[in-house]
Design a protein that fits this description.
The chain is 94% helix and 0% strand. It is rod-shaped. With 169 residues, the protein is an all-alpha fold.
């Protein structure tokens, strides 16, 4: 019985180390999520993260089920699994709150991205309008320049003709 308990304790410590590694991986995923700016990529990572978290939760639930099935023959043995269950429960709660926080952050980032997309669309509309206005002004100026050149040419022609007539007179 003592060997079984020791084996269970070793396995729980191993699972706890695994849990800590998994929790570290979750934190790394979280860091990646904060760096991502595009909406579609953010959704894909969120789906992967949720799947991963579901797997972790299933592992924890399986471990809880195993703990419940262990024989509780001695008073001392009862206390240790309760501590472990409490620890696992706290870790699950911590994980869930972290998951909720990440969902909130993703939602906030999505909203911020949406607002930026709206701002970009508005700026693009204004830029397009200004471009059309500038093209119209440029066309008007080109027409005025052509008219001015024609008038200059007519003026020089009349002046030259005038000079010629004066010489004739």
């Amino acid at each position: 019985m003592e060997a079984g308990f020791s084996e269970m304790q070793n396995e729980l410590q191993s699972r706890d180390a695994l849990w800590r590694r998994k929790q570290l991986e979750c934190q790394q995923l979280h860091t990646e999520l904060l760096k991502i700016r595009e909406y579609k990529d953010m959704q894909e990572i969120q789906i992967k993260h949720q799947s991963y978290c579901v797997q972790l939760t299933e592992q924890l639930e399986n471990k809880n089920a195993e703990l419940l099935l262990l024989p509780q023959s001695q008073e001392g043995q009862q206390e240790e699994p309760n501590k472990i269950r409490n620890h696992v429960y706290r870790e699950e709660q911590s994980h869930r709150s972290e998951q909720e926080r990440m969902k909130t952050e993703i939602s906030d980032l999505t909203e911020e991205l949406h607002q930026k997309e709206i701002t970009i669309a508005t700026i693009m509309e204004k830029a397009s309008l200004l471009e059309r206005q500038l093209k119209m002004e440029l066309e008007i100026k080109d027409k005025l320049l052509a008219k001015q050149q024609l008038l200059d040419f007519q003026y020089k022609f009349i002046k030259s003709e005038n000079t010629h007539l004066k010489e004739m007179v």
